């Protein structure tokens, strides 16, 4: 018997700081393994996970965000639970958002994002990202220290997406203030135990988003303007139908919440590596062409999403293991990203890893993260400007302890993976 045999992944805080030994334990048992709690099957193998992510006929995304909680209210029976999912989908967290949609509903909502994330709009947005990065760095460059998430990553990511959506300039400071904290819903298991430590912002940021974007969309539908918000407000489904205002608003709001959070976590992970591995920092200073591969390797080694989920719509087999209809399937992306069958020495960070870009941190198939390219661009530009303007980065010993006894705190959730804070000291680069 090992220390992991009876661990409850969803409640055991000992797995928060470093879940990777547990994922390795599961994969060594079997790349598709039943967990001892909550009727969950975990898929930790790379090839097996791709099979699940791409097979939308067999696996529903209705529970993508929170997995077994609250789960279906009745015990599934038979070899197909499509009708049961249809009856109870509205009970699933974030059931009205793109991430939990299936089939035609998903395709229609995603098409709205495609109308927004056009190549021309992305190029225009990238031009705006450079000055946004510098403006954010200006706020702390003279201090010689900063907290990566609060001082840079989160406010920067919010302003980038505000620019992408065309939020009026006069409203952007309010967006930054209101969206400084974005939480997923608190999830409770069948025993009523909370599975996420909830912070208390001044106001529900998602409610703020819904209210503000609703106002923008309704205003632009009444009075079109030559701007991005009008294009968003008047986007149509592929068959020409005009979506409900609420559908447009939820799509835009989800881009703010999910896109901003992903970029924030990715930037923090990247900056910790740069601060702790000076040789990597020097490589990136001299070889800026290495930044895209570096970013993909960061995504591989530290996926911002710890666990995605699916619900088996019908009885099936994955990796030679039978999965009954109605089973919750857990997809710990970081586990697949460290599968030794796919990656040589998978627990090592290698900035020049030749197949780093094959990671699954942004998913696969129709649910591949639509904001992935934007997040990569934000992080690449951020690292360019931080490396240009700062000559060295050091992990703060005051906040995180000495190199041989570091103290980092991670979000206490089974859904996401990221630091709660990352304090760095630095020396500004000599002015040209």
Number of helices: 15
Based on secondary structure, the structural category is alpha+beta
Oligomerization status of the protein chains: single chain
Radius of gyration, CA atoms, in whole angstroms: 22 Å
Q: How do the helices and strands follow one another from N- to C-terminus?
A: HEEHEHHHEHHHHHHHEEEEHHEHE
Number of beta strands? 10
Report the average pLDDT across residues. Answer: 92
The largest β sheet comes out as: 5 strands, mixed
Residue stretches low in confidence (pLDDT < 50, at least 5 long) are 184-203
Distance between the termini: 62 Å
CATH architecture: Orthogonal Bundle
Q: What is the CATH superfamily?
A: Cytochrome P450
CATH first level: which class?
Mainly Alpha
Provide the spatial order of strands within the biggest beta sheet: 1-2-8-5-3
Task: Count up the domains.
Answer: 1
CATH topology: Cytochrome p450
Shape: globular
β content, as a range?
A: 5-15%
> What is the helix content?
40-55%
